[in-house]
Amino acid sequence: MPILTHEQLKTIVPPAKSDARMRIALSHEFVELYRGDKDLRVGKILAKKYNCEIVHLGTDIASPADSRVFKTAKYPVDNVGPLPDDYYLLLLKTRLIYHRRRNISLGGFFRWTPSIIRQMLRWKPDLVFENPYLTLTPRSYMTFIAANLLKIPKVYIDCGDVISDLKLKNKIVLPLEMQVVRRAAAVITYNMAGKTRFENNYGYPSDKIHVIPKPVDTERFSPKVDGRLFKSKYDLNGKFVAAYFGRLCENKGARYLLDAARIIRQRGAEGEIVFLFVGGNVEAEHAARFQSHLQNTSLKNVRLTGMLPNIDMPSAYAAADIAVFPDVTNLPGFSTVLAESMAAGLPIIIGIKGWESAVPIQDGYNGLIIEPANPAQIADSMERLKNNSQLRETLSRNVLRFAREQMDYKIITRRYFEIFREITGKNRGQITDIQYDRAEDRYKELIVE
Length: 449
Known about the structure:
The protein has about 450 residues and is α/β, with parallel strands linked by helices. The protein is about 40% helix and about 15% strand.
């Protein structure tokens, strides 16, 4: 049975390993399901297409976001979906430790899973593939110890979020983190900003860093999706829909889109545009502040969906004319909703000027880059797009092409697999497919340096 509880793990003997077959341990501090199976998807493809065995070092508890969405403190296994026969999801006994309770949306917690080392020694993977987030947690140190005992390589997958200034506690632990990170066999990061962080903060060798964009399901999030029912449900028909996707928390800048809406009302265009906010809040305090700001603006052309089930998200993107990300500087990074907006072919306005290396958006080519938290520039850019259908079509075409050729899960996983195969020397019988080779060529042309 692919999903194994910590009680079952006491009696089950791991299957025998094959010398020719790669067994990969997936280690991720924040495996969440409210956004779909994106944290499981790479492992599923590695198991199905590349004949790898996957040992996922999971937990028996839900994250704060999953706990709220699925109404359970336990890991929501019913939402995992079918797993390949050789994908083993280990639900290890875990405690949630908070260190910033008022800032959960920025990762104010970590998980304490004491049996990680023991299970890695039992399953004996050939490689550890881990997302350490911005600072190493106890999980990272435990997988590091186990990898050293097993004499196996460790590969980091970095989300590319940027810490502008290291805080005191980060500076204190940095020397220890450097000893761990520098022993990684390779680092994969979503953007050039992540590459720079590993080079500057850890002194990690540049030639072992692979910049590979964030993966997305380009078939599921596609311009071909029918958004008519969604438009009818939220009274969007006949309107120009400017959409915000993501949590309505302060660090994402949702309130600045409300301010832009107020500016557009002052310009007399309120009746032509609808502002759609797709998302909710993890922290009640942030929700209250956003609602208060909305009430103060007295806007009538705003639609709030709340937190939507992941199954409804493709329709939400399909219902929008443009996507607006008011502030992508706290922390600068490559978010899931940005990746999905790109796959949906939406013209994008993004407040990330000064931190362009965090995203694959080029101003005027596949999006419009503006100053962060600037309502006037948001309003100006929105009116520019609304009144210029040719510009919208150009941005849409270019961003969609990049997503399909560089970000699709099948293409991204192929690139990961090549790195793993080179490091471990296993699964040498796999055939390089033409789609991957072509994607490599296009990636070199389109990646933002």
